[in-house]
Amino acid sequence: MIGNSSNAIADDVLNxxxxxxxxxxxxxxxxxxxxxxxxxxxxxxxxxYTPDGQIRTDLIERxxxxxxxKTYIFTLKKATFSDGTPITAEHVAxxxxxxxxxxxxxxxxxxxxxxxxxxxxxxxxxxxxxxxENKNTLKIExxxxxxxxxxxxxxxxIGVLKLNKVDSELTFDEKMAFxxxxxxxxxxxxxxxxxKWRASDLDSSNPANTVNFNLFKKVDTKQVASGKITDTSxxxxxxxxxxxxxxNPNWKAVASEAANERFIIINPKMIPLELRKWMLSRINVDDxxxxxxxxxxxxxxxxxxxxxxxxxxxxxxxxxxxxxxxxRLSIKITYGENLPYPExxxxxxxxxxxxxxxxxxxxxxxxxxxxxxxxxxxxxVVIGARGIDYPEGYSVVTYFRSDVESNYFFINxxxxxxxxxxxxxELNNEKRYAIYEEIQKNVLKEATVxxxxxxxxxxxxxxxxxxxxxxxxxxxxxxxxxxxxxxxK
Length: 489
Hints:
Blueprint: E1 13-18, H1 33-42, E2 47-49, E3 55-57, E4 60-65, E5 71-76, H2 89-101, H3 106-109, H4 116-122, E6 130-134, E7 137-141, H5 149-152, E8 182-188, E9 191-196, E10 210-215, H6 221-226, E11 236-238, E12 251-255, E13 260-266, H7 273-282, H8 285-292, E14 297-299, E15 329-336, H9 342-352, E16 358-365, H10 367-376, E17 381-386, H11 394-397, H12 414-424, H13 429-446, E18 449-455, E19 459-463, E20 466-468, E21 485-486
Parallel strand pairs: 1-10, 15-16, 15-17
Antiparallel strand pairs: 2-3, 4-5, 5-7, 6-7, 8-9, 9-10, 11-19, 12-19, 13-17, 13-18, 14-18, 20-21
Helix pairs in contact: 12-13
């Protein structure tokens, strides 16, 4: 599938349909997979992931590590932004430092960088040991030897921006300079149009020249099947068990996001601890998954996917005595309209959380509104979902750091923070995995987030205008779209 040049013809247009009206184009501010899918096409990194989770170089020509394994030297290859400006080590350094300035979720993972702890107190970016030694050489120092840095430098969140200063003002539109193989051609109501402007070493024999991200409040699969959405190159996500495209010869299904987790978040400001612990104890994930009757979904006992080392291997909680509730309490459970198997979720939760003083209600919201409420942490109970940021358990346990704004799990524990720090500095794999397990067990003790299941909850349908699609088990948001082979005219 890999070619040497970009030879897509103008008629090879890929139309991607997303069930959301909001896309965050700032790589250091995004939180959802839809935004990450777009961002991944626009910005280059020092390293990059292939869809199967493997790492390869991107902007660097070569790299070396010191004998004490604490200093990394990266030599950049010659590359430019889409406006012709050469990409320098200063641009890369400023992009990495900006993660800390904005307190992005990745800043927790990158706390292994020397000076990260000091920066939290001083807010002086010069304390961060991410240094451009010259135009082509970048040096990064870590507090201790780590095996995680390369994983982190490949994630979409750390895309390289044209930043002459860390705090330079940026406008994320078609006028911006982009470092990835695609740039924004235009943004209009409901459509973000990307244009392939340079070759990529991942180019297929016929990559898409233009990619249209079509943003809907809700994607109606019946419209697609009936031809009301006429451009059959649309990439669609189908949450229904029996999609109207399932037997359509012009479409093919590809499983994705095998590591995606569904979980339940309980707001401790609205639900007391005693009741939360009872709600947690009532969830039997083995029973729930058996009701789904879907072989692509497996029980989740913790938060690290079962395919990665460090995952929990069995239920960590036992039944708790039903609490006495003096006053009748209504609990509203909020979920997005793209929740798969919603009726199974509803019937199961009504059954297991049955209590004479509890009234269980459900609220379905458009995806963008649901995400907004989950991130703002203002709902009683939310059925949430998240994929992994990169294929290593550390990417999951850092969700629970107390000092990052993207921690919407209501976890604020000094002990958990210390365990996360120690796991990032542990070179012995088995010891690191044991720490991951301990972190998850401590999170469960808080009873603010309940793991439910991992799996390929969605089937991704591609029309026959896409000739080949590489496997992408960690999700579409890690798919470099230039790897797709368009069928052409």
